[in-house]
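Work Package 4 report. The design task specified in the project plan requires that, given a folded chain encoded as structure tokens, an amino acid be chosen for each position. We show below one input record used in the internal validation round.
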């Protein structure tokens, strides 16, 4: 149970450390046909930072996705060949300047985490004998990239514009704020001179079908790579950079260089998702480790306690069993706590059959389908633990139809448990003193119960290897099964009696009203003490009255047993039968124990009366 509480605590703390999921579900993930994936996002809290913010524009009718940080950049897909690529529409730049140069209006990726992919894009130019270059600005005359078409095409023979594909310069980030120079014959129309950066797969598929594809499109798709900036770097002439192995050196047209991560980044739902995910993950890891060690510590402690309890509750049991009869050790089943918890639904209060001074009895179903009564004792001292062990030892020896059978026990707890066979009906006490018109105890039933109880006591006194005295026979300790067959229970006060024992005790055990009066004078309990207690139960059966009554009058005390007989007995029993049983009861209640009959003699006399009544079921009766 302790471990269960710790697992509940762990589950609660885990839920506290998982705030991300709820917010993520509030984000918009689609804009038209484009699926938006983190670190890109639509709406505050759904993207990593402002550079990855996406705006879903509905002005043109169908929704279109645009990057908020870059003008005119329409997002077509943000999950191309891995999470670090994005496909976007790039304008086709027309060169119409009369001085053969143009400051083209295009898309600028500077100050952003994006760069044109040199492996997936091509720099394209339109026209025949066209030589177009991109020159770095800011007084830097080195050629950054260019495209040369030296084919001779006659406009008269081949009207229209032709596209030519060139390699894209490495790590180019913009097609604006750069000087684009183009040299071409005057005979070629100016509208046939345009440049753009275009996705290689797209242009290859289109160019084979239409060589004028760029002229026919105002925008073409290009593939961008993105990465988180890691600071400045510089590139040496031998192509080595100051960036580490996890980064690439990005060349800006402004002659600045940046180290950018080249590896794919894990996705998450928040702007601070990286930091939050890391801290939450570490916290969860430490929590799991701590909880695991706590669980192991508690389990070790529980195991140690179980071993101590088993030693205290079971060592004497095994010692006594082995000294009395070695074969009985295997007959006692030692249940586990899990078996009994499953059988009783974790000792549910709805399963309680009864509660007494010594403990509580629960109804349960064992794994093999047997219905059982689980007796859970209250917190006890060492003396009462010895009493519990004594009951187990005694019941282990007993195999009698009129004695409640012990299925096993559980010793690995401070509170020992016994598992008996379940007896469905009530106690004899309830049937005698709570009779209803629907059910009454007949004379034959009373006589049969008396025979069964006396036979069980005779078995304990004479048939077992060592005599056993019950010492607490009363109608409340006699149960009736579904066939109304008597079953003696509650052996907590029972004792083995060996020849050399004096039978002396300083502690009164038993129930007042049923306890042998001679026992109070001598403090010595013998088998005749059980005979006296049986006599009291027998009188209960005959009279239907309780042994101790606070309402007795002087006239009641003067009445003899014949005058107190139950009306049902007087109605059904023969006179000679009544005389015989009354005389037998008086002999059992003799104040002098030596004058009382033995239980074997009681069984013989009662059996004779039953036989005289007529054919009866004598199953289980030991004469």
């Amino acid at each position: 149970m302790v471990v269960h509480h710790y697992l509940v605590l762990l589950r609660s703390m885990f839920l506290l450390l998982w705030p991300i999921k709820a917010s993520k579900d509030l984000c918009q993930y689609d804009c038209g046909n484009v699926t938006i994936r983190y670190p890109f996002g639509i709406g505050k809290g759904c993207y990593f930072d402002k550079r990855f913010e996406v705006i879903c524009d509905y002005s043109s009718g169908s929704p279109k996705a645009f990057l908020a940080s870059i003008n005119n950049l329409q997002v077509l897909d943000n999950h191309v060949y891995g999470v670090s690529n994005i496909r976007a529409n790039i304008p086709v730049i027309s060169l119409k300047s009369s001085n053969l140069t143009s400051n083209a209006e295009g898309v600028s990726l500077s100050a952003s985490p994006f760069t044109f992919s040199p492996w997936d894009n091509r720099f394209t130019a339109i026209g025949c004998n066209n030589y177009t270059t991109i020159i770095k600005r800011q007084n830097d005359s080195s050629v950054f990239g260019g495209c040369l078409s030296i084919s001779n095409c006659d406009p008269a023979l081949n009207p229209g514009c032709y596209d030519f594909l060139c390699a894209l310069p490495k790590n180019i980030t913009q097609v604006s704020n750069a000087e684009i120079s183009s040299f071409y014959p005057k005979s070629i129309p100016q509208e046939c001179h345009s440049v753009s950066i275009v996705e290689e797969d797209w242009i290859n598929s289109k160019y084979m079908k239409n060589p004028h594809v760029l002229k026919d499109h105002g925008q073409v798709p290009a593939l961008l790579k993105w990465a988180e900036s890691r600071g400045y770097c510089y590139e040496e002439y031998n192509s080595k950079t100051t960036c580490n192995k996890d980064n690439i050196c990005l060349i800006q047209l402004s002659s600045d260089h940046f180290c950018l991560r080249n590896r794919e980044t894990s996705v998450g739902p928040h702007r601070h998702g990286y930091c939050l995910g890391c801290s939450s993950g570490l916290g969860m890891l430490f929590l799991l480790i701590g909880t695991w060690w706590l669980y192991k510590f508690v389990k070790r402690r529980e195991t140690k306690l179980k071993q101590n309890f088993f030693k205290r509750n079971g060592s004497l049991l095994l010692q006594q069993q082995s000294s009395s009869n070695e074969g009985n050790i295997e007959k006692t089943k030692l249940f586990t706590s899990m078996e009994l918890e499953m059988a009783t639904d974790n000792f549910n209060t709805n399963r309680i059959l009864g509660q007494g001074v010594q403990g509580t009895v629960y109804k349960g179903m064992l794994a093999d389908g047997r219905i059982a009564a689980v007796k859970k004792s209250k917190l006890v001292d060492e003396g009462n633990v010895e009493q519990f062990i004594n009951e187990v030892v005694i019941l282990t020896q007993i195999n009698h139809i009129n004695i409640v059978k012990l299925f096993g026990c559980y010793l690995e707890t401070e509170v020992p448990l016994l598992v008996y066979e379940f007896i469905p009906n009530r106690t004899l006490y309830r049937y005698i003193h709570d009779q209803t018109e629907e059910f009454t105890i007949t004379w034959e039933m009373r006589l049969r119960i008396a025979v069964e109880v006396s036979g069980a006591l005779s078995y304990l006194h004479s048939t077992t290897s060592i005599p056993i005295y019950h010492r607490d026979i009363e109608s409340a300790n006699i149960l009736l099964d579904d066939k109304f067959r008597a079953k003696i229970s509650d052996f907590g006060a029972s004792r083995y009696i060996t020849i050399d024992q004096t039978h002396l005790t300083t502690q009164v055990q038993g129930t007042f009203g049923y306890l042998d009066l001679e026992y109070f004078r001598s403090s010595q309990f013998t088998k005749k003490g059980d005979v006296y207690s049986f006599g009291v139960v027998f009188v209960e059966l005959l009279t239907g009255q309780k042994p101790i009554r606070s309402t007795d009058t002087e006239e009641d005390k003067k009445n003899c047993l014949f005058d107190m007989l139950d009306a049902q007995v007087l109605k059904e029993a023969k006179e000679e039968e009544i005389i015989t049983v009354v005389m037998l009861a008086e002999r059992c209640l003799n104040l002098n124990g030596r004058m009382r009959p033995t239980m074997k003699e009681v069984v013989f006399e009662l059996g004779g009366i039953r036989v005289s009544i007529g054919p009866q079921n004598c199953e289980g009766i030991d004469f």
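The mean pLDDT is 72. Validation will be extended to a larger panel in the next phase.
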